[in-house]
């Protein structure tokens, strides 16, 4: 029985002793789309030759949403990345509330997000949408958890939903990462329902450990049934490490999201 969703997995987190183009080819062989992180780390020509379907990658290299200098940096970086995305046929280009440094720590950490920052972030995302419309690409904004990504502005599921729904343009969707939602808020199925009109992709990993479904506390089979029942038929991507064996990890993911 095929999955009702389009399944993909993050290549950087699996078969970590293999070249990235090998991982992309392996995921294609297994019937999965391929998610990527930062494109400058890879040989684009080799990735193209893999024949893989690239579903998502980081949509910027630097920049921020909520100040003038950061917004200009973000727009320039996102426009450059859009060209790479089009070259690889990437479906979605991913953004965060601010740039992330080593270990995913926000470069610009924020204790209080002011009203002015909210207005600037919305303006920046509208500028991203204007550019995306010109380039024929789609961006997503991802929620992040406060333990792994402390003091990240606009990191919570609620904040990402508020921004994406207020911009409300087809060039910007949510990357609803349920691993981050589980740590930050919990209540996954209700958050899926709230975010449903704006979801561009659902990402999954179990908690704790950020391994494949079935290794932690999240009932991903139940989440999958709920997503199907509420009418979601879009992409679901595993952004998780393999607890032991990468082939077994992707099959566990496939099993959880095949109904």
CATH fold description? TIM Barrel
Q: Count of helical segments?
A: 9
Quickly give the structural class. alpha/beta
Q: What percent of the residues sit in helical stretches (DSSP H or I)?
A: 40-55%
Largest sheet: 8 strands, parallel, barrel
Oligomer: single chain
Mean pLDDT: 97
Distance between the termini: 7 Å
Number of strands: 8
Instruction: Indicate how many domains the architecture comprises.
Output: 1
Give the name of the CATH architecture: Alpha-Beta Barrel
How much of the sequence lies in strands comes to 5-15%
Please identify which CATH superfamily we are dealing with: Divalent-metal-dependent TIM barrel enzymes
Shape: globular
Low-confidence stretches: none
| Integer-rounded radius of gyration | 17 Å
Instruction: Describe the strand arrangement of the main beta sheet, using strand numbers.
Output: 1-2-3-4-5-6-7-8
Characterization of the model:
This protein has a single domain, classed as Divalent-metal-dependent TIM barrel enzymes (TIM Barrel, Alpha-Beta Barrel). It contains nine helices and eight strands. An eight-stranded parallel barrel has the order 1-2-3-4-5-6-7-8, surrounded by six helices. Strand 2, helix 2 and strand 3 form a beta-alpha-beta unit. The model has no long low-confidence stretch (mean pLDDT 97).
């Amino acid at each position: 029985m095929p999955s009702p969703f389009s399944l993909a997995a993050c290549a950087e987190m699996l078969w970590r002793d293999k070249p990235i183009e090998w991982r992309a080819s392996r995921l294609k062989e297994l019937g999965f789309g391929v998610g990527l992180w930062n494109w400058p780390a890879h040989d684009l020509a080799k990735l193209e030759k893999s024949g893989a379907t690239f579903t998502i990658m980081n949509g910027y290299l630097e920049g921020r949403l909520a100040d003038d200098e950061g917004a200009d940096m973000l727009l320039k970086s996102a426009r450059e990345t859009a060209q790479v995305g089009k070259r690889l046929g990437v479906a979605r280009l991913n953004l965060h509330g601010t740039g992330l440094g080593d270990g995913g720590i926000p470069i610009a950490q924020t204790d209080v997000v002011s009203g002015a920052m909210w207005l600037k972030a919305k303006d920046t995302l509208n500028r991203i949408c204007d550019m995306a419309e010109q380039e024929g690409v789609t961006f997503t904004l991802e929620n992040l958890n406060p333990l792994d990504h402390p003091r990240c502005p606009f990191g919570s599921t609620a904040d990402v939903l508020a921004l994406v729904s207020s911009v409300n343009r087809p060039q910007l969707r949510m990357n609803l990462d349920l691993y981050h939602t589980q740590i930050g808020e919990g209540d996954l199925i209700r958050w899926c329902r709230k975010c449903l009109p704006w979801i561009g992709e659902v990402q999954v990993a179990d908690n704790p450990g950020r391994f494949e479904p079935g290794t932690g506390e999240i009932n991903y089979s139940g989440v999958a049934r709920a997503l199907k029942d509420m009418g979601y038929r879009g992409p679901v991507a595993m952004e998780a490490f393999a607890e032991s064996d990468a082939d077994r990890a992707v099959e566990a993911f496939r099993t959880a999201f095949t109904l």
